[in-house]
Design brief:
Blueprint (H helix, E strand, L loop, with lengths): L9 H49 L6 E2 H5 L2 E15 L3 E4 L18 H12 L7 E6 L2 E6 L1 H9 L4 E13 L1
Parallel strand pairs: 1-3, 3-5, 4-6
Antiparallel strand pairs: 2-6, 4-5
């Protein structure tokens, strides 16, 4: 470059504009996905409210089963880790500690779970790697130890399976 002549910035401007457009494109994609997650949450919340409304008339419980109710009449015979598996979502029927936050279909019960639920939904919709849920197997059914939001989002998205780390409880009737 000659001394005293201004530098030609056309190429630099073009590169800067392309980088900025790439960021704007990525940000608009993230915003779109985030909005889709919020819409999905609102649908799941509405379905849960509708289910609870009709349960009033049918007198069928829509509560998520508690593992304590399942094991209260028995003593634990043995516990073993089964490792990672692909688990059918329809066989996950209860929870170890979050029964008040979700119904039996894992629909959220209130907007209090919105932020966490939407963050998990964003990850699902962006095809990010989702950590496996932690489950306890009793008989043919599973209870959630960790991963309630992941299960709720997976069900809302119509998935049939979820990856989980399973611990099996064998119970002995008393």
């Amino acid at each position: 470059m000659e001394k005293g002549k201004p530098m030609n910035t056309n190429i630099l401007d073009h590169i800067s504009i392309n980088k900025r457009n790439g960021c704007e494109q990525r940000n608009s994609q993230l915003l779109f996905v985030h909005n889709q997650s919020i819409i999905l949450f609102k649908k799941a919340l509405f379905k849960g409210k509708l289910r609870r409304f009709f349960s009033f008339f049918t007198r069928k419980s829509v509560n998520l089963q508690s593992i304590t109710a399942e094991i209260s009449h028995a003593s634990t015979y043995s516990i073993s880790d089964c490792g990672y598996q692909s688990i059918p979502l329809k066989r996950i029927i209860g929870s170890e500690n979050r029964c008040q936050d979700f119904d039996f279909e894992f629909s959220p019960r209130s907007v209090n779970t919105l932020n966490r639920w939407v963050k998990v939904a964003d990850l699902f919709l962006l095809d990010e790697i989702i950590p496996p849920v932690e489950l306890i197997q009793i008989g043919w059914n599973y209870f959630v130890r960790d991963g309630h939001h992941r299960i709720s989002v997976a069900k809302a998205l119509g998935k049939e399976y979820i990856d989980g780390c399973v611990r099996i409880y064998l119970l002995k009737e008393e």
